[in-house]
Design brief:
Length: about 325
Amino acid sequence: MKLKTYRIRKPKIVVIGGGTGLPVILKSLRNESAEISAVVTVADDGGSSGELRNSIDMAPPGDLRNVLAALSDMPKLYNDLFQYRFNQDDKFLANHTIGNLLIAALSEMRGSTYEAIQLLTNMMHVDGHVYPSSEEPLVLHAEFTDGTTAVGESSIAKDRKTIHRVYVTDKNNKTAEKASRKVVKAILEADMVVLGPGSLFTSILPNLVIKEIGDAVKETAAEVVYICNIMTQRGETEHFSDADHVRVLHEHLDAKFIDTVLVNTEKVPENYMDPEIYDEYLVQVVHDFNGLREEGCRVVSTDFLKLRNGGVFHDGEKVVEELFRIVFGAKI
């Protein structure tokens, strides 16, 4: 039974991440009574986003576009138009989406991707707040356990090396410290901060290693919840257990800041995933409940699985139902 009941006030929930996992949770959160703030990575350098950030001084728009679409109540036709991607054979427009181009145009008009996103939030009737994690594009760096390095989000997984740590730099190659306006305030005033689901090293950590965001997540009185990935990811989390995911997060911020971990225990059917579409995902994440307890986390383990079109996803409604149990039990 869904938890859509009368409440004294809406809980303030901040969701941090990027990639395809974040919109799944946000779509389900939008259907509940919550005050939502999404903090979205700006370290993407591939595809349409990468081309635009290299052409215009702007944060990459792709993840921001998907979050706006997930939280918008625009008619389906408008949303479909916003998300429309031109065909590969369309020469100059190949692979670009209408939404990415619109964000690029507004960023250039206003001189700020942050301002562009706030304008689109109003234009698209977005139910919540959407903030880029930084007000300038950032570059993601990885240091591997063999001492080598990689620069750029799209290049990190190519050699399938074990990642020691990641960090982000600004356009002056200085370590990124400053968050977008209102991000720190949203985290400190939240009832719950949700991390993920999403790629550990390229969607979640690029936000947390911005010093102001990492410090705020450690300082906040909010319940900090990590939604652990269902599958391991090629070149990022190969052979990782759920406890390994949490350990890496804690090591990057040098603190055990995660209060609760959501873990899927439902088995993915053998040979279900379509390897041609989802070639970066390998095997199901194994469980290490003793390791999670050693990291100081409460563990919620149940069936969060949703199978769709040859892919493995979190069931947004089940996840959000659990999040609301936690937030009302812990903070309100």
